Amino acid sequence: MNGWLIYRKEDAEKNSAFIDWMQTEAELLGMKIELVIYHKLTYGIRDGHLFIECKDKERPDFVIMRAIDPLLSQQFELKGIRVYNDSRVATIANDKSQTHQLFATNGISMVDTQFINKDEIDKLSFRFPVILKAVNGRSGSEVYLLHSIEDMPLLMSERYIVQALAAPGKDLRVFVMGGKVIGSVLRESDADFRANYTLGGKATLYRLSPSERELVDKIITILPADFAGIDFVFDDNGGLLLNEIEDIVGSRTLTSLTDINVAKLYLEHILKSAR
Q1: 139 and 213 both lie in a single domain
Q2: Strand order in the sheet with 227-234
Q3: SS3 211
Q4: Could you tell me if 46 and 58 lie in one domain?
Q5: pLDDT tens, 27-48?
Q6: pLDDT band at 55 (very low <50, low <70, confident <90, very high)
Q7: What domain range includes position 199?
Q8: Shared-domain flag, residues 176 and 252
């Protein structure tokens, strides 16, 4: 089986070790994984037919999408090529407002949230302090703790969510693959209200309780993903509140704390599901 691993150029450089790992494990499994740089792809409609082209690349059997473009993912799917994660996951997980809308509709507990455009900041319905997040932000980017309207940064994105402040500097990431939990990591920071590992937070393994596992299973059922991170914050009683879904999830914390071979597991999942 021949697969494309699609990254934007700058992300491919930052994730070169993971790319090498995926290619090495693929070879051991009798697979071939080609790195494809996103900006070298062209796609659209020609002579009434959908097309996707990348110079000197043969049509793949499957695509591992590590660049955010739900429309491109859907183009592959319409041409009969399986995408990991699929276009529905990419559309919802990479838009925090859509994520909260979907899961609130299905009874999943979360922090009170307001959807807002950048030119409507004067419509804030919460008392300060609040958390302001760009709907398309990743890895803690464009996430702000505001104690007053004077703390408002220069807003670069068009749409945001505003949330009441949950317990700061602490969250839980649950890694799921193929409908199963493969690991859970508690992330904490004494220096920042964001607990992201890439921002200097510390990480420890976390054992889910039966009720927490039941919650995760419900979320997986609502939005099945091939490989994703489900992030939670904690309420005043230590209960889990859904925070977001990471579509292009990193695995540094999990691999630093365990001997789980994430690359091999992911490729084995692809082998089982792509046929």
Answers
A1: no
A2: 202-205, 180-188, 170-177, 227-234, 240-246
A3: helix
A4: yes
A5: 999 999 999 999 999 999 999 9
A6: very high
A7: 167-267
A8: yes
